[in-house]
Amino acid sequence: MNFLCLFSIFISMPDIESNSIYNELLNKVNYYSGNDIKNISLKYLYQKFNLTNSDLILNKKLEWNSKVKRSFYDDLDKINNGVPIQYITNSQFFYDENFYVDNNVLIPRPETEELVSHIIKRERDNKKKNILDIGTGSGCIAITLYKHLNAHVFGIDLSKGAIKIANTNNRLVDNKVRFISESIEEYTPETKFDVIVSSPPYIYSEDKNKVESNVLNYEPHEALFVSKDPLYFYKKILKFSRRYLNQNGNIYFEINDKYESELELLFSELECKFIKDIYGKKRFLFVSIT
Predict the structure, then answer these.
(1) Best exposed site among 28, 92, 133, 139 by fewest CB in 10 Å?
(2) CB neighbours of 72 closer than 8 A, spacing ≥ 6?
């Protein structure tokens, strides 16, 4: 094919004004209501097409061939079936990176960003540390801590699907984090740790009816719910820490504030502190082993 033919194909490729796509979303999205329609539409446009609010003001044009169009309407169907935008676009921004996600892992939450921010502020010094992320999921916690702290970082998860996603995201740090498919009950590391962090399943299975339907329908239940004892994983991590956490080491938990008193009793022999999130809920528990 000569240059003139290639040029003619290029200039004849169809395009579309970004506001046309935006308006189509506003008119066709029906799973959400009110301002949520606008917010979901803007989030989708940014994560799918990298369109910002400024691009919409300028009415930036996008390539709009049959493949892109078909993908868009497939995505629109998924949106109207309640599939989270992050799973549709396979992306979620966390702290300072865009992470790959699918329904093998929980979607990273702003509250978890808060937890990571607290850890970075408390653990930033010149000492090289060993850090373990228990229930690593997408790897967002482990990878972010590796980027911002002087540390060897490990992440474990029972789910092989989650470890696959975590290793996909490991490219963000040149595969420097070591991800291992293992349960906390069976994990026997060769090293001790200075920091252990975990956002374990902490929603009691009997409270499923209180969870948003698109979370309940699409996010992995094994990463959300605990069936018998709401403190099961906190007890297992405490037992693990007594053996594998170094002297003066720290444990950082994300918690369900419903079980604050039970957690306080569980860690009563240790130095512990509950921390509120930006919404005023006691979301985090910091424990020190001295």
Answers:
(1) 28
(2) 21, 48
Summarised one tens digit per residue, pLDDT across range 63-104 is 999 999 999 999 999 999 999 999 999 999 999 999 999 999
Per-residue pLDDT tens over the stretch 273-287: 999 999 999 999 999
For residues 192 and 225, membership in a common domain is answered with yes
Look at residues 81, 111, 127 and tell me which one is the last residue of a structural domain.
81
Q: Is residue 86 part of a domain?
A: no
The parent domain of residue 27 ranges over: 3-81
Q: In whole angstroms, what is the distance from residue 279 CA to residue 258 CA?
A: 15
Residue 131: strand pairing partners: 153, 195
The pTM for the full model equals 0.90
As a whole number of Å, the CA-based R_g of the chain is 22
- For the record, the structure tokens of 164 come out as 């696959």
Q: What angle do CA 152, 153, 154 make, to 5 degrees?
A: 130
Output the domain CATH number for residue 166. 3.40.50.150
Q: Are residues 119 and 209 in the same domain?
A: yes
